[in-house]
Design a protein that fits this description.
The chain is built from 14 helices and five strands. It is mainly α. It has two domains: about 10-105; about 120-300, Orthogonal Bundle (hpI Integrase, Chain A).
């Protein structure tokens, strides 16, 4: 880059599409950012503001967030969009375009996630479920592998047994796609059940969209239907309702279940974090799911709460 060249601005949507056209990232990644470009373009149309790489002052970012809220999007979705816009602004700056950093002063609050995990007993019921179609069994079995490794779906969908590529001498070893870190995980007995069921191979997974729909149906069939309180900020409203647990299950529930059940089994947080990649215990404890009832039961067994003072 010519160090004496004056930085120039560029239409934000044009920059995003330019960046994506040269990126080697996955199609799923590119879809996410094309969606971000769509939000920016629609905001520009509604507000009458031409959104260049240097347009996101503090005031414009506040107006952008207000626009997203007016679309009745969940707060977590708005936060995600804001983060991705920020990422694109940072990339534009690195490529020599003029940017404005006032957007950094606009913070979208983090909501306590309603994400859930499956208990070991629920996973055993899932493992023992009979009369599944070929695709449903493939989804159930890959999901169980995720639940007993705490891997992301991008990793547990890539696992292969052939030629001892990932499975060897009682361990699973894989270089994680997101972080590039090599993790080694002991093989849980239920994973051995999965391998035995599939004649020592792992079944081919369907698309992630089909996976999400199928795992909900399977968990419903397994009777994982306790009522769970669901709460989200949608637009300017706080929505609270009770839903069946299986309705909240997704491909990512596997990773959360793995991390939570390892913690409840007494494995130290430091060792679990070597698998999950969390950098701090604060982030780890926000991630895992321990129900208030479970916490109260554990505390009730503690000597401090049993002794008469």
């Amino acid at each position: 880059m010519n160090l004496f060249r004056k930085p120039v601005k560029k239409l934000m949507t044009d920059f995003i599409y330019e960046y994506l056209s040269k990126s080697a990232r996955s199609m799923a990644y590119k879809r996410q950012y094309r969606n971000i470009a769509r939000h920016v373009r629609m905001f520009s149309d509604v507000s009458g503001i031409i959104i260049n790489t240097n347009s996101f002052t503090e005031q414009v970012m506040e107006e952008f967030v207000a626009y997203l809220r007016s679309k009745n999007l969940m707060m977590s979705t708005i936060r995600n969009i804001r983060q991705k816009v920020s990422a694109m602004i940072n990339k534009a700056e690195k490529r020599g375009y003029l940017v404005e950093r006032g957007f950094e002063n606009v913070v979208v609050k983090t909501e306590d996630s309603c994400a859930i995990y499956l208990t070991v007993d629920e996973l055993k019921r899932l493992n023992e479920l009979k009369s599944l179609s070929k695709q449903a069994q493939a989804v159930r079995d890959r999901f169980l592998v995720g639940c007993f490794t705490a891997l992301r779906i991008s990793d547990y969908r890539r696992l292969t047994v052939e030629d001892n590529f990932n499975f060897d001498k009682g361990f699973i070893q894989i270089k994680t796609q997101k972080t590039g870190v090599v993790v080694t995980i002991p093989i849980h007995p239920i994973i051995y059940d999965v391998l035995k069921r599939n004649k020592n191979v792992l079944p081919v997974m369907p698309t992630q969209q089909a996976f999400g729909k199928t795992i909900k149906r399977i968990c419903k069939k397994a009777g994982i239907a306790d009522e769970v309180l669901w709460e989200r900020t949608v637009g300017a409203r706080v929505v609270r309702k009770k839903v069946k647990k299986y309705q909240l299950i997704s491909s990512h529930t596997a990773r959360r279940s793995g991390a939570t059940n390892m913690y409840l089994a007494g494995i130290t947080t430091a060792r679990i974090m070597l698998l999950t990649g969390h950098q701090t215990e604060q982030a780890f404890f926000r991630y895992i799911r321990i129900a208030r009832e479970e916490n109260a039961k554990t505390l009730s067994e503690h000597d401090f709460l049993k002794k008469n003072l």
